[in-house]
Design goal:
It is built from 15 helices and nine strands. By secondary structure, the chain is α/β, with parallel strands linked by helices.
Amino acid sequence: MSVRASEIAALRAALLARGSVRVEHTVLWRLWCAAAPRLVGSPQQTDDLHECLRILADDNMIELPSRSSRRPWPSHVTVPACRTAPKSKPWVTHAWRAELGWAASLRTLSDELFSDLVAINTWLGHHTNQSVPLVPVRYRSAEILGREKRLDELTRTTLFDSGRLTLDLLACTRYPPPLPAAVVGRGPDILIVENSDTYWVLNELLSNATNHPIGAIAWGSGRTFPAQVDSLRVDVAGRGPVTGTAWYWGDFDPHGIAIAEAAARASTAVPIKPATGLWSVMADRPIQDRDTVDWSYVNGDRLLGYELWSQLAHIRSAHGRIAQEAVLVTTLAQWVKGLR
């Protein structure tokens, strides 16, 4: 036998490393050239490959196609070790409670999700026929799964759906992020502003004024506000749900308009409207960041109304913006006086 043991071992390793169950002859030849470089171009190269494949087949390392002996060398070989074993489905036979019986019919389920469902199944079993107090979702997540944000992650999967997992089933609820706010009067309305410095200025001005409809001022925390909208129907500044109108004022730029529009769409229980008096005074301020702001995709007249949107058109035409902080404190004081 002219083929060397080292060459047989090299081809064996190459076939396993490739990871393919079926290896075509063109690939097989390339692997053989790398395994036995001394034979490249030699008349013996084909015969030695055939001999090497026979040895590997006798060792049950590969399978040769039927009647391959009639050819100089086989059109392909099969590597059984590279076949993927069928994955077990432990969720199909798991002892699920009735609430989770649907899990047994899932076509696929990762190990991590299976572990999560088992933990939920165990928790449900421990609380059968018990009155479980309602808690925020992250408290329940930490209790059942050991990770406070895991249930939030699971709600974005197909495990959460009608007839499957629900927050009600787990006796938990998602509360909106709290809205930083302060009481500034007795009125039913609330004023929400985008930026924190503006919040402090108007907080002081409104607190020192009387006979205005603004009962509280809130800081919308920039882009966070749309996620906080639901807190308006729960509590603001310890006054309970908002009973009047939520007035919003932000920066006059694409981001500021987008925040206001998203908040207005998200609010169902409390109307959110633009504080038109505050938006309008921005028209008289020097334009900031000229020639840098892209307004082409913004349609703010839906939020501000046609008249106010037109009043601010020169800012958009200059491709600029106006920040809340560019409005003078004295102008804000005049606006507060006008509320009476």
